[in-house]
């Protein structure tokens, strides 16, 4: 019979289980290493089953009385302007912000007080130092020298569980990093939040947020960043605060203010985003009170331990304990909250991707599923030439800085210069190399227009002036004005389709849906709307490449990746397979506006294809007339560079054009100097005009070198 249970951990799950067991007359002891209930932390959104659990415990009205007063969540820019909003009442109160949200520390206080009122005992400032399974119970040795015995021991002490470590082994075996860290702390509200939970995102994987506190003039702050696993002392708050300060130096918005507040906050807490996976959640009479989204709640570890430990005549109590365990799991899942759900649901939910991935970065090529684009022999030659000493005078503010040093400081991963068909400069940084697959972001669009040109030459597409509705007729049934939009309009970004960017991460803008959507075919078919007549106004718009992806699929009867392999990648003589990220496993549609991944040298081969008017490996792959037309200026943009068929035209250099992607991904072609330059990077390093100045300076240096050596036009 189960008479006594010892629980390790007084967070949320531990007190819930303690309360439910104590109500049934079980003697419950909760051991917690902290000196009291831990304050602070993320807000817990009570919804669905979690709300039902508290209601059945008789605590729902008390929970309402301590809930935060929040209007909703807003995405803000560096000046604090609201870019998008979702109110707490949207979606029936079940949106990103729940109708009832309680600070984690406040909910823990409520649950601990309730469990104590029913007889549970708490030993704060105490930790387990040894566990011995006696067969009919467990002997527990505590750090104060005392010993306790219990029928069952439950570890509810989170991802750093000492119980798990003692019973099952080291954390490295079971804890999987999810690629991010988050700090929570209390701070002064400062500039009034007006009851909004506001979040600011900065490219490069930084996010900061402020939400109203329960006490006037206070707020709960978070600072989060993406990162591979870091080596730091989890108990050294000074080290953790220094880590946060370094990460958010110069990040904008109110981050400097938040870093200062973190330095003095008494409830500052930093931890990694992780997931615990174990082959078994119990061993004998010792169990972990953790469940994963894909774990069968009817077979949780605690229930298995209860079934083994309880006397057969105590089935009523055993069934009741099962119910208590399920309740603990439900509230534990709520505490892990939307982030835990999000990380487990990124292939099935756009909102999950918004929460888990937030701002784009180069790691997205590994987050999205992908389809391989196979190559085949023969590989087109890309020989090394005499390395030409290039300087950084047109790029760096330091006269003594080498080009390699300047590129490294600018977050470059690969930088190649091909001159007269030979590699004259090649550098890699940050772990990249000649065989590393680099993502391209919007450079992918230039490949899309090239595939359209090939499909026209092959007779699969009749004309660039075909209406898009010739291939996607359902658009016309939804909106007759789609019949006026041609493939040319799509490729020149003059389709007249509406496109409103809200900035990541929250799912309100077209940019979020076209980048993070799990079914981009439906996004293109259902969300694209005609706003202006086609051919009149340039507007950078990611619905355009998505619609062209649908055209290519239907015209060729193939996945876009498969068509690219046979029509472009293999004839080009690429040295390595490429990949194209998909919207999701279920949908299997190439992202089209981005997501193409290849080596830097193979990007250079693509650039050489355009430098040589569509010829490579001794064959004409793309019609020369298409190359010239695609890279000619067709429409002006708000900047000094005009636009072709998903190609940018350098307004400062005649005969120069480039494919261009977020965070400074480039394939730059300069016909006059017979040069192709490839740059990939993890961040911008400088703005687009800055990179173009460097490319101009490099081509000028190569031209001077040719004149000096008399080698112009020769390999």
UniProtKB/TrEMBL annotation:
Domain (FAD-binding) ranges: 4-167
Domain Beta-lactamase-related: from-to ranges: 410-679
Keyword line: Hydrolase, Membrane, Transmembrane, Transmembrane helix
Pfam families found in the cross-reference section: Beta-lactamase, FAD_binding_3
Presence of the UniProt keyword Transmembrane helix in the record: yes
Presence of the UniProt keyword Nucleotide-binding in the record: no
Coiled-coil intervals: none
GO terms of molecular function: hydrolase activity
Phylogenetic classification of the source organism: Bacteria, Bacillati, Actinomycetota, Actinomycetes, Micrococcales
Superkingdom classification of source: Bacteria
Stretches that traverse the bilayer: 323-344
Name of this chain's protein: Serine hydrolase
